[in-house]
Write a structure and sequence with these properties.
Layout: E1 2-13, H1 17-28, E2 33-37, E3 53-55, H2 59-62, H3 66-73, H4 85-108, E4 132-134, H5 140-150, E5 154-157, E6 159-166, E7 171-178, E8 183-194, H6 223-231, E9 235-236, E10 241-242, E11 245-247, E12 261-263, H7 285-288, H8 292-298, E13 304-307, H9 313-326, H10 329-337, E14 347-351, E15 355-356, E16 359-360, E17 373-375, H11 384-404, H12 414-429, H13 436-451, H14 457-477, H15 483-508, E18 531-538, E19 541-548
Parallel strand pairs: 1-2, 1-8, 2-5, 8-17
Antiparallel strand pairs: 3-4, 6-7, 7-8, 9-16, 9-18, 10-15, 11-14, 12-13, 13-14, 18-19
């Protein structure tokens, strides 16, 4: 296998929203920047199809008191754990910087205003402060890529970074493979920013026959979390789960863009928040309880429909405009082909996949506990607004760190590079064994059965034992017949690492909270309010702690 070396000041892993913003800012600060993307930058990440909601704080809309805005934001279920300590500091840093990023995007050519004004709608309870800016994000990736190229950023497509390199003190680079050629790529970098996106493919899809939980998210497998964990960074609360809802059997979830009400078969609203379509707020019911639709179906009281009947022509055009920018073009095309009109036909909705919420622990500078390692986007704080803002923050601080970092001795890590090369060779030269899909399906089934929506100490203990036994076999038998399969194999190995963390942290959290339900600990423990399960590797040993959030 040929070895290629690339030297840079800052390496951004992943060319999604966070990676591109980090690269742009680091280059502006004078750093030499490389963005490594295992696919192609134009089509990578969850933001590739567009988006229409940007969480942000705009003083001229929300008033000058950021504390009041934070208080309102913390009402939403997804932020209930951010009640103290570092989490609030991280949240404040994001909010205080978010308007600057909104103005930058608008200046760069991503339209952030609707009909000449800041338009806020969705993801808020009726009567509460609206926190999500509507914007036209259909072409956001094109704009950001162009900006990165203008700043001199080197975008390396079709190279999967699969492990990080560090000496005893700090981060010094990463190892990747070319996904087309038989080449091992070694990045020598003074700082590394992880922005590889969400963690999919760990639990079974709701659509039989699809490998990823959401069709199209095949490559979003939490690679950054797995690499960060192996490098010694903290992974925060990997046991906590989230669920989204969306049109049944389609490839993109989301309910905030829909101007409608979720109703049962008898036209009764399933939640208390809206009884008729409201384009400012939508129906927040599934955000309060992500499994609510699934529970209704399991008791035979479904199906549940998103009902947009009766909306005005103006509201209909408003919804269609934002659906296009959110990336729902395939859904709109299908509805048109089948002559389905949202104004006449309710659309069945379902609860989608299980996604573990575990994040890479960062501070307000996007720094992890490993010097020289940064994280942004779904790796650390989800959503387009957070990805853009913390990508920018990470890029600035990584560039400043790299400017002062002394030269690294890369010769000392050659044995580690050689070991990784041998692992790659082993997967590629085997003639018999399990391929990535067989292993991934087995992993998904194991996670669903033993660490799914219902958990207990006995189930978690058994599941962890099975996973570790399976890993020993997989390490000796996993096969890849080509470079595409090799990439999927490396993703699957990362998934197995992350699955183990889910079992360990779920066992440590001896209570029921949100979607983490323990039958042996059915109550929510007030002592755990504002606290997280934190896992890291220290001197090769697993460390599990309970820390303030």
């Amino acid at each position: 296998m040929e070895e290629k070396r690339i030297q840079t000041d800052v390496l951004c892993v992943g060319a999604g929203i966070a990676g591109l913003m980090a690269g742009i800012r680091a280059a502006e600060r004078g750093a030499k920047v490389v963005i490594a993307e295992k696919g192609h930058a134009l089509h990578s990440g969850r933001g590739r199809g567009g988006n229409d909601h940007f969480w942000c704080y705009i003083p001229e809309v929300h008033g000058q008191d950021v504390n009041l805005f934070m208080k309102e934001s913390l009402k939403t279920p997804k932020l209930k754990t951010m009640q103290s300590g570092t989490a609030l500091t991280v949240l404040r840093a994001f909010l205080e910087k978010s308007f600057d990023i909104v103005k930058l995007w608008d200046q760069w050519g991503i339209p952030m205003k609707y009909q000449g004004k800041w338009e806020f709608a969705g993801h808020s309870f009726p009567g509460d402060v609206l926190t999500h800016l509507k914007y036209e994000g259909r072409d956001q990736k094109k704009v950001l890529i162009q900006k990165a190229v203008e700043q001199g950023v080197d975008i390396v497509n079709r190279v999967m970074v699969f492990d990080l390199l560090r000496d005893k003190d700090r981060m010094i680079g990463a190892i990747g493979i070319d996904t087309r050629e038989d080449v091992l790529v070694v990045f020598e970098a003074k700082a590394v920013i992880l922005g590889t996106g969400c963690l999919d493919r760990l639990y079974p899809a709701p659509i039989p026959g699809w490998m990823p939980s959401i069709p199209g998210n095949l490559t979003l497998t939490g690679d950054g979390r797995a690499m960060a964990y192996r490098a010694g960074a903290e992974i925060v609360s990997p046991e906590m789960l989230k669920r989204h809802v969306g049109p049944r059997y389609f490839s993109r979830f989301g309910q905030a863009t829909w101007v409608g009400v979720l109703r049962d078969p008898y036209d009764k609203p399933i939640g208390p928040y809206v009884t008729k379509p409201n384009r400012l707020y939508g129906d927040m019911t599934p955000e309060v309880k992500g499994v609510f639709l699934e529970e209704i179906m399991e008791t035979g009281r479904g199906p549940i429909y998103m009902d947009c009947r009766g909306i005005s022509q103006e509201d209909y055009e408003y919804m269609m405009h934002w659906m296009w920018h959110e990336g729902n073009a395939p859904l709109l095309d299908y509805m048109k082909e089948e002559d389905i009109d949202f104004r006449k036909h309710p659309i069945e909705f379902q609860a989608y996949h299980i996604i573990p919420e575990g994040k890479i622990g960062i501070n307000e500078r996007a720094e992890t506990c490993v010097p020289g390692l940064y994280a942004a986007g779904d790796e650390s704080m989800g959503g387009i607004g957070c990805a853009a803002t913390y990508g920018w923050i990470a890029g600035q601080n990584a560039a400043d760190y790299a400017r002062e970092a002394p030269p690294a001795d890369h010769e000392g890590i050659q044995p580690e590079i050689d070991n990784k090369r041998e692992m790659i060779h082993g997967i590629g030269r085997r003639k018999e064994g399990a391929d990535w899909k067989e292993v991934n399906i087995a992993l998904q089934q194991l996670m669903q059965d033993y660490a799914g929506m219902v958990r207990s100490e006995t189930m978690l203990t058994a599941g962890l034992s099975y996973l570790r036994r399976m890993r020993k076999t997989v390490d000796q038998s996993l096969i890849a017949r080509n470079r595409w399969e090799l990439t999927r194999c490396l993703e699957t190995l990362n998934l197995m690492d992350l699955g183990e963390l889910v079992f360990i942290s779920a066992d440590k959290r001896k209570e029921s909270r949100a979607l983490h339900h323990r039958t042996d600990y059915p109550l929510t423990d007030p002592v755990m309010d504002g606290k997280e399960i934190v896992i890291r590797k220290e001197n090769g040993e697993l460390v599990v702690e309970v820390k303030p959030s």
